[in-house]
Amino acid sequence: MKLLTKLPYIVVLAIYFLLAGGAWAESEKDLVEIQSVDPTILVELKYASAENITGKVLYPPEFKASLRRGVMKELEQAQATLRSVGYGLKVWDAYRPLAAQKELYAVNSDPRFVAEPGVRSMHNRGVAVDVTLVDTNGNEVEMPTKFDVMGESAFYIYRGGNPLVEKNLKVLQRVMKESGFYACRTEWWHFFSRAWEEYPNVPEEGEKKKPSAAGSRSKSLTDE
Questions:
Q1: Dihedral sign of CA atoms 184, 27, 47, 101 in order
Q2: I need a labelling partner for 203 at 20 to 30 A (CA). Which of 19, 30, 117, 163 fits?
Q3: At 166, phi and psi to the nearest 5?
């Protein structure tokens, strides 16, 4: 402390902001429960029911939809924009534990739809959300498919010919892009933060923190 008092004021100030910035950056990586931050965002976790490709319940009843704090800020921005034009978000999935990813991969290992557990999955990092749109009454609006449909009908580029579905999908895609998310080319509901490289996989219980295994790859990959 005596050493700091002998340093020029500007240097002390720089050290303070450097340390504070490091603490802020770390807090951005914390997992936060989505509805505790923004209760206007609806949540219906599909893996907390059997309504998914495994046909099994993958999440326990107490499991909450969560994201990294920094990514949650982007989702808040998307929700605010959507509410201003008569829509809202419903979250179908967010942070996904490794055990659940392994269950999904065992059922479908097609890299267009399910990422390799612990390696490519944006959900394991806590930076991805599966979402749909709701109206002002909380009812889901028409979208291309239901959740976890594996096929061309669920692709980013809609070819179904329903003008209302196309309109709804374009609203979702535009707002998520403006809020800092990339879209997935094979799943219209899947979006992940453009800052995903800043976040390694969320350590599992009892596991030591590991450095990110991320390399450079195209933003158009599934990364589900």
A1: positive
A2: 19
A3: -60, -40
The span from the CA of 29 to the CA of 17, in Å, is 19
| pLDDT per position as a tens digit, 166-176 | 999 999 999 99
pTM reported for the whole predicted model: 0.80
Give the amino acid at 113.
Answer: F
Spatial distance between the Cα atoms of 92 and 74, rounded to a whole number of angstroms: 17
Torsion angle (degrees, nearest 10) of CA 185, 190, 195, 199:
-120
Cα 45 from Cα 224, distance rounded (Å):
15
Residue type, 198: E
Q: Which amino acid makes up residue 153?
A: S
Q: Give strand ranges (E) for the chain.
A: 31-33, 42-43, 66-68, 88-93, 128-134, 181-183, 190-193
